[in-house]
What does this fold into?
Amino acid sequence: MVIRFQTWYGGEVIPHLRFAQAVARTVAGADVERVCEIGAGANPILSLEETARAGVSEYVVTDSSAQELAKAPAGYRKVVADVTQGAVEGLSAFDLVVSNTVAEHLRDPAAFHHTVFEMLLPGGRAMHFFPTLYEPAFVINRLLPEALTDAILQRIQSNRERGGHNEKFRAYYRWCRGPTRRQLARLTSTGFAIEEYVGVFGHGYYHPLPSLDRLETALSELLAGHPLASLTAYAWVTLRRP
It folds into this structure.
């Protein structure tokens, strides 16, 4: 298992895109033919052009909301499914299962990971990107009423309007932590082996407040050099079904 730490600003692109690049490298660099993205909604991680270049024979996108799934571009195989409710007919024998900012919305993360495990072929991988507690911005999002946090977010990020392609949904942050010992034990309890865990310090929510943004950036750099796994803001993990 490899554990790495970085900052929100520690690369040419933001962590969301770094994760997408990691998924693309996994698809291109391994024998991956069938991929399923859970909770893809309006914004699948990989484009159809990327999957075609990598030789992927099938890229299935799922979401529990038919309305969200309808926003995804045409050409994907779309399946309305809630994998926290157990196995879904036809969603099995995948080489790779991925999710992007989905885990924080799950009420039953154990059921989610158990189902993903069953969706994979032996040796298959799962890759998940998610925000983590106990970053203060996400603690506030967890504790305050949803209507209030929704209004705050829309003032900071105008592209998060209701009904749009980046709509905000209720977050619970269950099993959404950096690579703490407890978090690692949770994931391995579902049968997975952990290949890589990347913790990210910092976020971009304070951009409209320059002084606070500079302070948060400096703190992120300090934490990256002296990491505390419980204080990450984001993480992504690569799991393998033995």
About this structure: Residues 123 and 241 are 5 Å apart (CA to CA).
